[in-house]
Write a structure and sequence with these properties.
alpha+beta, Heat Shock Protein 90, 2 domains, five-stranded mixed sheet, three-stranded antiparallel sheet, 13 helices, 8 strands, rod-shaped
């Protein structure tokens, strides 16, 4: 069957959930980098301004130049980031900051380790968090080499004096140790976070697979239920066929009678009356066949508001066709005026299943009764379906609503009728109770949610 173009174009073009999650993560990462670079840029500008106010720039022109270079680097990172190039901006910041740190250690030696601890660690932290484990250790190694370069510069400038060696060794120990400790903690923390994320993803995939399997199982059960309902319909169609054939024999006899009357008469009025009789009998035959076809058609359930009394009255002729002439059929709607929500074809299926079981329980004839009772708005509608047939033992009564349970000989029953009926009633918010004893007949009490007619 061809797809509906309108339905295809009407569907909203929304991105899959994983793509949306990636977009949200990318946006958050960009916002974090903008905040980091913006704050650092502001700090650098503030530092340069303070040095100008304190006239330190004349005393240490290289220091002011390094600060301005750092500010230029951060400004360039912000520009690249504004174009959506987060990775390039991150690489530019890490490599540029490490290069400036190398120049600073070469110029000021280990004094820079005390002056710029935070700015030394930031490239390492950014590299580890945003670029990965390999970048973390590359940045750490670069920074360690810069620290060693600064230590060598201090020792060379003092001609390796004993006092300077111990001083540089002391600063070098804490600087290298602190840097390695930060890198190690960051590496382990990121590793644990990645493992936790992978574990969460695996659990999510497992849950998604179970959800899909459950959905498939539910769909399969729904298809099986629809097939069972259809199978029961076809079983009951076979039962109805004998009654319909009997009814058709009467209709055909009426048609033949009118046809013979018209053939024998030369009076135009009598001929017209005969034709009208044939037409009426044909309409009745068409109604019977249409009812049988509608009942056997495999369609999904369509619950709709039904006048309970009117629906039972409409089903009464079909129920009578199921019984032997020796069975007395009584239908009492009790002047009930209430509405139920049920599929009319399925309501007919439920009552036909019970009537068919009652007919089998009365091979010698008897009485079948269907009564309606309703105590008013807010109370359920009660349908009492009873017969005075053979009845059931207690063991059979307890199992009569189980699927595929039957006491009939092989090939004469599927054991689905009452089970499907009970399932249909439960789906409509109703319930069914069975009262029976051997030799005392059987009564089914059905309760369905009901409301008053307008």
């Amino acid at each position: 069957m061809a797809a509906d173009p309108a339905a295809t174009t009407a569907a909203p073009a929304s991105a899959p959930e994983p793509v949306q999650d990636d977009l949200r993560l990318q946006t958050r990462r960009r916002q974090m980098l903008q905040l980091l670079f913006g704050v650092l840029f502001a700090l650098q500008l503030g530092g340069v301004g303070l040095r100008w106010l304190q006239v330190e720039v004349t005393a240490e022109p290289l220091l002011a130049t390094a600060a301005m270079a750092q500010g230029v680097l951060l400004g360039a990172c912000l520009l690249v980031l504004g174009r959506g190039q987060e990775r390039i901006a991150t690489l530019l910041y890490v490599v540029g900051s490490l290069a400036l740190a190398s120049v600073a250690y070469f110029q000021w030696g280990m004094a820079f380790a005390n002056r710029g601890q935070l700015f030394n660690l930031l490239p390492v932290l950014v590299a580890g968090v945003l670029l990965g484990r390999r970048s973390l250790w590359l940045a750490t190694s670069w920074l360690l080499l810069s620290v060693l370069l600064g230590a060598w510069r201090d020792l060379v400038s003092t001609y390796f004096s004993d006092d300077r060696i111990w001083s540089v060794a002391h600063v070098l120990l804490f600087t290298v140790g602190g840097l390695l400790l930060v890198a190690l903690v960051l590496d382990q923390t990121l590793g644990l976070l990645r493992e936790a994320l992978q574990s969460a993803l695996r659990r999510g995939d497992a849950l998604a697979r179970k959800r899909d399997a459950l959905q498939l199982e539910m769909q399969e059960k729904e298809r099986s239920r629809e097939q069972l309902v259809h199978a029961l319909k076809m079983e009951n169609v076979g039962r109805l066929a004998s009654g319909v054939a009997h009814d058709f024999n009467h209709i055909l006899a009426v048609i033949m009678g009118y046809a013979g009357k018209g053939r024998r008469s030369d009076d135009a009025a009598e001929l017209q009356q005969a034709l009208l009789g044939v037409e009426a009998a044909t309409r009745r035959a068409t109604a019977v066949t249409r009812r049988l076809l509608d009942f056997s058609r495999q369609e999904p359930a369509r619950p709709q508001p039904l006048d309970a009394a009117a629906s039972i009255t409409a089903i009464e002729p079909v129920l009578r066709q199921l019984f032997d002439r020796r069975v007395q059929v009584q239908v009492d709607t009790g002047a009930v005026r209430c509405r139920i929500l049920f599929d009319p074809a399925l309501l007919e299926l439920v009552l036909i299943s019970m009537a068919a079981n009652a007919n089998h329980a009365m091979p010698e004839g008897g009485r079948f009764a269907l009564q309606l009772a309703w105590d008013g708005d807010g109370q359920p509608l009660q349908l009492r379906v009873s017969d005075d047939g053979q009845g059931m033992s207690e063991a059979v009564r307890l199992r009569c609503l189980e699927p595929f349970f039957t006491t009939k000989p092989s090939g004469q029953g599927t054991g689905l009728g009452l089970a499907v009926a009970a399932n249909l009633l439960a789906n409509a918010g109703g319930r069914i109770a069975v009262h029976s004893a051997l030799g005392q007949g059987t009564t089914f009490v059905i309760e369905l949610p009901a409301s008053a007619l307008d």
